[in-house]
Structure formats: structure tokens, C-alpha cells
Amino acid sequence: MPFDFHNKRxxxxxxxxxIGLAVSRSFAAAGASVxxxxxxxxxxxxxxQTLGAQGYAVDVSDKDSVxxxxxxxxxxxxxVAGAGIAPHGPLMSVPADVWNRTLAVNLTGVxxxxxxxxxCMKRRKGGAIVLIASTxxxxxEPELVAYNASKAGLLGILHTAANELxxxxxxxxxxCPGFIRTRLTESQFSRPELISExxxxxxxxxxxxxxxxxxxxxxxxxxxxxxxxxATLLVDGGQMASKFGTWQRETDIFDxxxxxxxS
Length: 263
Ligand SMILES: NC(=O)c1ccc[n+]([C@@H]2O[C@H](COP(=O)([O-])OP(=O)(O)OC[C@H]3O[C@@H](n4cnc5c(N)ncnc54)[C@H](O)[C@@H]3O)[C@@H](O)[C@H]2O)c1
Known about the structure:
Rossmann fold; seven-stranded parallel β-sheet
């Protein structure tokens, strides 16, 4: 790991699973003191212990829950807002409670997190916040209307927060992962007929791993990104760069997980 985060206090929401867990693990491996905030059902304290980190039961949709955790932690140098949910369903039949809960976690939860992070970073005049947005911040994947709206909304939080917090030397950036193997997507990853079609539209011919997103998060949080704020970094294997995909019937071979060109 080329990064050094010794003496840095890092908070990761949604850190008990998937991308958040990979982020927590990478920061811990780079020497940071890591605090995982996640739902009590995900046993954040137990998960954190396996990394030599701290874990706290927090529901990011509840402002008091987030504020209590940040008040308890007292100080943080880096905050990663990763908690998210992605319920599927056709636009015309998404129930109001699913819409409300998705926005409450993915959008309002990030708002609460950024507010709490900014309050303590402002006191110490510095810090870095990284949001986990999505390629869906930009496009309209079907059957994910609430998710897409929430992730598009994160760009509004990103730009406003970067603007208002820049004078306090607080940088705010976002990563936009594409299709990453976590429990959110595992059912799709385990269907070769589905991913062989999907991956035709990804320049690198495959899905991503949580650690590959974590590396981008660490970069944006590090001093190597000292003049970067208000930015989004796609971590999508080139998916958003390609309108029609790069796949070629004659030359490309699928090994069950990845397309490779044989020419
Ligand atoms: N997996 C992908 O392909 C992908 C792509 C783009 C963006 N993302 C985003 O990355 C983030 C992590 O997703 P993942 O794929 O690792 O999923 P995951 O389900 O493995 O992890 C999400 C974590 O968020 C936590 N969480 C959910 N609601 C919460 C709440 N109210 N309060 C606190 N924690 C809560 C969950 O308990 C879980 O630990 C999400 O924001 C997701 O939208 C994922």
C-alpha cells in the first residue's frame, strides 16, 4: 500500500460491508485509526475489531445518531460517506416507503454525515470528505429510480460542500463506482449469462472489486489530491466512456468473469 495515513483519524459510514469495508481495511492497513459507523444489525464493533478499528452502531438517516457518534469521536481528519441501499423495482410501482427510505439513507444520510464531519473539521481548519456516489449519479439504470435520484442528488451535496468548505481547507470529493462485486451485486456476478452481456459494455471487460474503489478513495483523501476538491472520479472500468461498448464478436473471449481480446 503506497499510502501513509499514520496519525489520521478516519470515519467510514457503511464500513461493515462491501466497499465501505474495503475502504476501512485499506485505511487501517495504511496506518490510520479507523472508526466504522454502520447499522447495529451489521455488528460494526465486531467487524471493526478484525481490522484493529473501532465500530459504532449508527443509522445515518437519523441525524441524532450521526451527531452522537461524531461527538463521541470528537475529531476526524477524513470522513468517507459510504452507507447506501439499492432496492430495485419498476418506476410505476415503487412504494412511497421504499422511495422515502432510499432517499433517507443515500441522500439525507450523506447530508447528515457531511454536516457532522464539516462541524469538526471546521474547528481544526482542515480535512477531507469522500462521498461514495455512483455511475448512476449520471445515468438512468432501469428499476432504480430512487437510487438514481439519490446518487444524482449527491452531486448537489458534493458541489455545495466543496464550495462552502474550501475556505476552511476541507476538500470534498466523490468516487463514482460502476459495477462492483459486493452483496448488493453478488446475485448478478454469479450469473455468467448476465455478466457476459453486461461486461461487453465495459472497456476493461469485467466488473470491479471493492478494493479497487478503496484505492481511489484513499487517493482522494490523501495529500496527493491536495488541489482536488468538488471532483468526481469514475471507478468503472471505462463503462461511462463507451456509448456502444468495445466488444467484438470475432476476437473476444469470455472466461466466465472477463472479456479478453484475442488478437
Ligand atoms: N456495489 C456496487 O456496484 C456499487 C456501485 C456504485 C455505488 N455503490 C455504492 O457504494 C456504497 C456501498 O455499497 P456496497 O455495494 O458496498 O453495499 P453493501 O450493502 O455491501 O454495503 C453498504 C453498507 O451500508 C450500510 N448501511 C445501509 N443503510 C445504512 C444506514 N441507514 N446507516 C448506516 N449504515 C447503513 C449497510 O449496513 C452496509 O454495511 C453504497 O453507497 C452504494 O450505493 C455500490
